[in-house]
């Protein structure tokens, strides 16, 4: 076993050297490399090993994986991190120098591995082999993967500036009570109040998340970090947060929001809404299908309306879009085939290869109608549902349009997705730290502090903690790492602000 | 009236004659039975709920209407799960690990227990202490992982049962059972000229079926339910056992996973609740079915008449 690996890597090295020198295939004659891999380009190609994030698929049976081999000539063996304790497992694998050639990491994992020195700087490799990479990936995405001036990952950008949630309300209940879709906070309050009085059901349900962007933006709150006169400030320090929580506490006290808010799951909230026990919910577009199908089954005349994002007193609003770099494709220091790994990443971004990888073949997996990509079911769901897992870096010019084929799998999901994006468009804001490289103190503290914020906010909203304790909470937040985060965020922000 | 009385009254032989059941006793038995039937029903309620969910339309499940009986009856979920390659494969892995693991583990455990049950073994106390030491202290996760790695067991099927061959607790149970067997049986066999191995396999083993059945059940349930080992050592999707498959199925549709993961694709591919329910049931049934088959070994009094003292 060991021997074949050594032979393989020697053959690979020879092949790479030969490839650079101008295409003699001296190395291939003695090489036991898999013959299927050699078809596409000259020289034998080693089998590469890639570590992926958890998802539910068997990579050996996945059509996108076969597509990659067919187009690039590389066979890749995929391992997946587990669904839970993924970070511990990753540490084990790294401690053991598991010979992966490339790894698809999230921001926290990337940040940890960079600071522990486990990752290979990629600048030279990109300069040598990254022909497609340079075209496909936008400059601001590269900023997110630079540590001390060196690139440590290929940034895989998210599928565009996306807004996932918007408040939705039972239109049939509004009609019955003679109410209009609310456009401001006061109107929202009146609607909730009237529903409570006349119908006796839960006016606003939701799960866990105490920060309802639709309502918070009427107080001027939006992203977690915001530019306050040139300095970054976390939203917990924004005085408006107190007003927002006071308002939410009022809703809670008056029974206008779900008393089980703190323990609801998303599924539970949808259950309440679709069984007629609640009237309003901040729905995610991907739940649109489930919600409407269940609701119509129970109430054939029911209709959900998405409430356009509420406006503040000055008629303004802000909607937070998620964007930035979702995945970091890194090559570990001890990878046996670094050159090939980068060649593979680059080859996958060749125009036609990338399109096929993202959405399959036209006429088989997808079709084009009015310039939009639609999935052909069930072929798309059967073969291409997990394709995103095999993507390592996206062509940012085209990926959002390809990706949207995925939301067109269900007419409700599609219409929710499109309506929400449409409503949000004029008011989109993104977090100023979106394209920041990993910042140690933020990676270290953000999860812990997010939990603290969520728990405390839920207590303020439910009134089990009086609002007068808010300043004590902020002091606690700062002491537990908030100050560290703010300082580091500002150091980066001031150095990089244009 | 008289008829019901005769039904509730236990057979005459079981009770001393002349004592009649009083009204109070009858009420007590009635309440007693009701209470315990009720408690028994509580334990099967989650199964009934899952069964109902797995056979209901997804819309009814999503809106939380399904409790004990299916609404919009369908069986498509079961067809879907049983056609799922990953489910079938994990079922195969689990069955293999459970069968091979249980057989080997029982064999090894019994072999370890037998000498330790004989007082004439020199250094017996020391050996037992060494076993007990491993019950109390272990090397920790990372060293154990590195050990498995060096033994080339990571990502191989044997890692799912080899490290668990001897559970010291089970070994002690078998040892105590062996000790409870009368010495005179061994002596009489020796007089008949039986070798040590013959005594073990022809006298001790046949007499120990009840304890073997118990321990086999312990091992089988352990191997079937274990997901942690596979979570740590297995990356290859082809080697994932049932419980890991189930765990991943449920976790991948949970709020916390979708929020942490922030990957819209996971949310778009989430598994419907009715299919989750069908998967859980299909994964649970095989091990539940094992119990009745082992029942016949739990027979009392096999020793009756073997020794006369």
Task: Describe the overall structure.
The complex is a heterodimer of chains A (498) and B (309). By secondary structure, chain A is an alpha/beta fold. Chain A folds into two domains: 184 residues, D-Maltodextrin-Binding Protein, domain 2 (3-Layer(aba) Sandwich), CATH 3.40.190.10; 214 residues, Periplasmic binding protein-like II (D-Maltodextrin-Binding Protein, domain 2, 3-Layer(aba) Sandwich), CATH 3.40.190. Chain A contains 20 helices and 17 strands. Chain A starts with a helix and ends with a helix. Chain B folds into two domains: 53 residues, no CATH class; 217 residues, Orthogonal Bundle (MetI-like fold). Chain B is 68% helix and 0% strand. The radius of gyration of chain B is 26 Å and the shape is globular. Classes of the chains: A alpha/beta (498), B mainly alpha (309). Chains A and B meet through helix 3, helix 12 and helix 13 of A and helix 3, helix 5, helix 7, helix 13 and helix 14 of B.
Any descriptors?
heterodimer; A: 498 residues; alpha/beta; D-Maltodextrin-Binding Protein, domain 2; five-stranded mixed beta sheet; 17 strands; B: 309 residues; mainly alpha; MetI-like fold; 16 helices; 68% helix; 0% strand; disordered N terminus
Give a quick summary of the entry.
The complex is a heterodimer of chains A (498) and B (309). Chain A contains 20 helices and 17 strands.
Structural class of chain B: mainly alpha
User: Ends of chain A: how far apart?
Assistant: 54 Å
| Helical/strand content category of chain A | alpha/beta
Largest sheet of chain B: none
Task: Output mean pLDDT of chain B.
Answer: 85
Furnish the topology, listing elements before pairings.
The complex is a heterodimer of chains A (498) and B (309).
Chain A: H1 2-21, E1 48-52, H2 63-72, E2 76-80, H3 86-95, E3 102-105, H4 107-115, H5 123-129, H6 131-136, H7 139-143, E4 146-147, E5 150-151, E6 154-157, E7 165-170, H8 171-176, H9 185-199, E8 202-205, H10 213-216, E9 225-228, E10 231-234, H11 239-253, H12 266-274, E11 278-284, H13 288-298, E12 304-306, E13 319-320, E14 325-330, H14 338-348, H15 351-359, E15 366-369, E16 372-375, H16 379-384, H17 399-403, H18 411-424, E17 428-429, H19 440-462, H20 470-496
Parallel strand pairs in A: 1-2, 1-3, 8-11, 13-17
Antiparallel strand pairs in A: 3-14, 4-5, 6-14, 7-11, 7-12, 9-10, 15-16
Helix pairs in contact in A: 2-15, 11-19, 12-13, 19-20
Chain B: H1 2-8, H2 23-54, H3 58-62, H4 76-83, H5 85-116, H6 124-136, H7 141-150, H8 168-180, H9 183-191, H10 196-207, H11 209-225, H12 228-233, H13 242-251, H14 255-261, H15 264-268, H16 273-295
């Amino acid at each position: 076993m060991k021997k074949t690996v050594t032979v393989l890597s020697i053959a690979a090295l020879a092949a790479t050297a030969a490839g650079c020198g101008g295409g003699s295939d001296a190395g291939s004659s003695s090489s036991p490399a898999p013959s299927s891999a050699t078809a596409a380009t000259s020289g034998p190609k080693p089998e590469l090993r890639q570590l992926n994030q958890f998802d539910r698929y068997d990579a050996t049976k996945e059509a996108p994986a076969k597509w990659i081999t067919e187009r690039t000539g590389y066979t890749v063996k995929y391992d997946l991190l587990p669904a839970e304790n993924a970070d511990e497992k990753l540490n084990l694998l790294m401690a053991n120098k598991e010979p992966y050639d490339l790894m698809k990491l999230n921001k926290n994992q990337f940040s940890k591995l960079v600071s522990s020195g486990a990752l290979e700087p990629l600048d030279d490799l990109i300069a040598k082999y990254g022909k497609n990479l340079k075209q496909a990936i936008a400059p601001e995405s590269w900023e997110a993967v630079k540590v001390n001036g060196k690139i440590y990952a290929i940034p895989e950008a998210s599928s565009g500036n996306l807004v996932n949630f918007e408040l939705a309300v039972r239109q049939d209940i509004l009609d019955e009570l003679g109410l209009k879709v609310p456009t401001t906070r006061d109107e929202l309050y009146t609607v909730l109040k009237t529903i409570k009085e006349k119908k006796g059901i839960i006016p606003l349900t939701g799960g866990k998340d105490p920060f309802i962007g639709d309502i918070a933006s009427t107080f001027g709150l939006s992203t977690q970090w915001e530019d306050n006169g040139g300095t970054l400030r976390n939203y917990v320090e924004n005085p408006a947060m107190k007003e927002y929580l006071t308002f939410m506490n009022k809703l809670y006290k008056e029974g206008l929001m779900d008393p089980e808010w703190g323990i609801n799951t998303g599924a539970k909230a949808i259950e309440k809404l679709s069984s007629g026990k609640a009237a309003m919910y901040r729905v995610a577009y991907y739940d649109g299908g489930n919600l409407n199908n269940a609701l119509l089954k129970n109430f054939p005349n029911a209709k959900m309306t998405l409430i356009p994002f509420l406006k503040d007193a000055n008629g303004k609003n802000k909607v937070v879009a998620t964007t930035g770099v979702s995945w970091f494709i890194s090559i570990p220091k001890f990878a046996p085939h670094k050159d090939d790994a980068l060649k593979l990443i680059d080859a996958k971004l060749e125009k036609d290869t990338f399109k096929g990888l993202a959405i399959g073949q036209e006429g088989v997996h997808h079709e084009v109608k009015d310039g939009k990509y639609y999935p052909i079911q069930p072929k798309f769901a059967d073969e291409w549902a997990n394709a995103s897992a095999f993507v390592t870096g996206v062509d940012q010019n085209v990926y959002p349009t390809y990706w949207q084929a995925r939301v067109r799998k269900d007419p409700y999901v599609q219409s929710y997705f499109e309506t929400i994006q449409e409503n949000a468009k004029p008011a989109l804001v993104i977090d100023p730290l979106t394209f920041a490289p990993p910042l140690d103190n933020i990676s270290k503290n953000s999860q812990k502090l997010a939990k603290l914020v969520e728990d405390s906010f839920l207590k303020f909203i439910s009134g089990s903690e009086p609002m007068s304790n808010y300043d004590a909470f902020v002091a606690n937040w700062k002491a537990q790492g908030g100050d560290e985060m703010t300082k580091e965020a500002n150091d980066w922000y001031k150095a990089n602000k244009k | 009236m008289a008829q019901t009385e005769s039904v509730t009254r236990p057979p005459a032989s079981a009770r001393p004659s002349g004592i009649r059941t009083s009204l109070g006793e009858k009420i007590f038995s009635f309440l007693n039975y009701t209470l315990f039937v009720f408690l028994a029903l509580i334990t099967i309620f989650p199964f009934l709920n899952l069964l109902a969910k797995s056979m209901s339309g997804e819309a009814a499940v999503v809106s939380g209407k399904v409790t004990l009986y299916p609404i919009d009856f369908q069986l498509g979920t079961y067809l879907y799960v049983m056609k799922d390659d990953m489910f079938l494969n994990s079922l195969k892995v689990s069955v293999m690990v459970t069968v091979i693991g249980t057989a080997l583990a029982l064999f090894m455990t019994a072999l370890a227990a037998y000498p330790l049950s004989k007082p004439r073994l020199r250094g017996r106390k020391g050996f037992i202490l060494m076993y007990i030491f491993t019950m109390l202290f272990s090397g920790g996760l990372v060293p154990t992982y590195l050990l498995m790695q060096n033994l080339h067991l990571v990502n191989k099927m044997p890692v799912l049962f080899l490290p668990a061959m001897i559970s010291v607790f089970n070994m002690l149970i078998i040892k105590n059972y062996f000790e409870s067997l009368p010495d005179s049986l061994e002596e009489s066999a020796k007089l008949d000229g039986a070798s040590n191995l013959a005594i073990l396999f022809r006298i001790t083993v046949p007499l120990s079926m009840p304890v073997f059945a118990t321990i086999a059940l312990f091992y089988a349930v352990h191997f079937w339910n274990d997901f942690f080992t596979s979570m740590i050592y297995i990356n290859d999707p082809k080697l994932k056992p049932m419980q890991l498959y189930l765990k991943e199925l449920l976790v991948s549709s949970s709020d916390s996973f979708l929020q942490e993961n922030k990957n819209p694709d996971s949310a778009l591919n989430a598994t419907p609740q009715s299919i989750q329910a069908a998967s859980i049931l299909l994964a649970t049934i095989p091990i539940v079915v094992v119990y009745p088959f082992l029942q016949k070994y739990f027979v009392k009094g096999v020793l009756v008449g073997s020794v006369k003292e």
